[in-house]
Design brief:
With about 350 residues, this protein is an alpha/beta fold. It has helices at about 20-30, 65-75, 90-95, 95-115, 150-170, 195-205, 225-235, 240-250, 280-290, 320-325, 335-350, and strands spanning about 10-15, 35-40, 55-60, 80, 120-125, 170-180, 180, 210, 220, 220-225, 265-270, 275-280, 305. The strands form 4 sheets. Strands 3-2-1-4-5-6-11 form a 7-stranded parallel β-sheet, with helices on both faces. A two-stranded parallel sheet has the order 7-10. The structure holds nicotinamide-adenine-dinucleotide. Nicotinamide-adenine-dinucleotide binds near residues 41, 42 and 125.
């Protein structure tokens, strides 16, 4: 990569989770000193097995809802990668209060701590759910609809806080709107498991996976390694280059609002592959991906049920802005990523 984060001290929140733990492994490979803050509410210590063997790694068990903990975690760090949150639309519908406390109050605690500590850039996990009920495809960053769930609201409010902190305090913030991330270490268990690990786990056990709706809903499924690349670039692109490229993007793209002047960087980017796959296509692809390991999987049927509240029908990103400004260049298509994921889950669960 042209720009890299190397030999820096960084904080990864939510580092015991799916995305955070993969990010930590990449950062450690580049000789960074990594602090991980996690309360293990959905994360798993097993995800940190490799990291714990590295002397550049420190684990801090704590909650982002506690301001002192955030201050302690961020001390001396140049970059923050904020991944900790309670994911899942259905979880936020079942318990909007806890999702709000963690995803908004926790976010502001950490952003405040980062600004107090003088971090160079605050990179955070935003979400494609922010597009809400807006129908247009592909999704472009500056056009969003109304939020469809408490989770989506929390993620949008985070973007507002990030922008506001940049305007007021001058801290650089970059939000990455992830689109249905999948891959190694994503948890297949529990009521709020994401669709790919849930289907894979069901099929390996010869159980019929359950599709919400008629299977025509579609998503821009994004392999984890693309997401790691986006995070590293979001932190590494130097401010001056970032601003120049952003100006080029803004002047070359219809409808993008203001041209930044001397304001601190505060931008959001779609992180996706830029294609979409229906749930029916996903079901067929996963069966195909697992059948080489166990032929009986080809016989397992899917079941269908009603649509879920809060779900959007279709989602697909434009990744033009990330390509232009960050130099984002996703290496894994949905199919290539799915083959990697199937191999990993089979090895783990067989
Ligand atoms: N996976 C996706 O498809 C996806 C899509 C859009 C956005 N995101 C966002 O990406 C981030 C990472 O998601 P993930 O899929 O790795 O989820 P995950 O559940 O695997 O990881 C989240 C981590 O945050 C930790 N955490 C939760 N509450 C905490 C708290 N109060 N204090 C400290 N740590 C806490 C959890 O223990 C867990 O380790 C989240 O912000 C999520 O909202 C994920």
């Amino acid at each position: 990569m042209p720009y890299e984060i190397k030999e820096q001290k960084v904080l990864v929140t939510g580092g015991a989770g799916f995305i955070g733990s993969n990010l930590i492994d990449s950062l450690l490979l580049n000789d960074n000193t990594v602090v991980c803050l996690d309360n293990f509410s959905t994360g798993n210590i097993g995800n940190l097995e490799d990291a714990k063997k590295n002397s550049n790694f420190t684990l801090l068990e704590g909650d982002i809802r506690d301001r002192e903990t955030c201050m302690k975690a961020v001390a001396g760090c140049e970059y923050v990668f904020h991944q900790a949150a309670l994911g899942s639309v259905p979880r936020s519908i079942a318990d909007p209060i806890t999702s709000t406390e963690v995803n908004i109050l926790g976010f502001v605690n950490l952003l405040f701590a980062a600004k107090e500590a003088g971090v160079k850039r605050f990179v955070y996990a935003a979400s494609s759910s922010t597009y809400g009920d807006h129908q247009a495809l592909p999704k472009v960053e500056h056009v969003i609809g109304n939020s469809l769930s408490p989770y989506a609201i929390t993620k949008y409010v985070d973007e507002l806080f990030a922008k506001n902190f940049s305007d007021i305090y001058g801290i650089e913030t970059v939000g990455l709107r992830y689109f249905n991330v999948f891959g190694r270490r994503q948890d297949p268990d529990g009521a709020y498991a994401a669709v790919i690990p849930r289907f894979v786990s069901n099929l390996i056990q010869h159980q019929s996976p359950y599709i919400n709706g008629d299977g025509s809903n579609s998503r821009d499924f994004t392999y984890i390694d693309n997401v790691i690349q986006a995070n590293l670039l979001a932190a590494a692109v130097p401010s001056i280059v970032f601003k120049e490229r952003l100006k080029e993007y803004q002047s070359s793209t219809a409808g993008v609002p203001e041209v930044i002047k001397e304001a601190a960087i505060s931008e959001v980017f779609n992180v996706a592959f830029g294609a979409r796959t229906s749930l029916n296509e996903l079901a067929v692809a996963i069966k195909k991906g697992l059948t080489p390991y166990d032929k009986a999987i080809s016989q397992v049927e899917f079941q269908y049920g009603p649509n879920r509240a809060g779900d959007v029908a279709h989602s697909m990103a434009s990744i033009h802005k990330g390509k232009m400004v960050l130099g984002y260049n996703p290496q894994y298509s949905f199919k290539a990523g799915l083959n990697e994921a199937c191999a990993w889950y089979w090895e783990k669960m067989k």
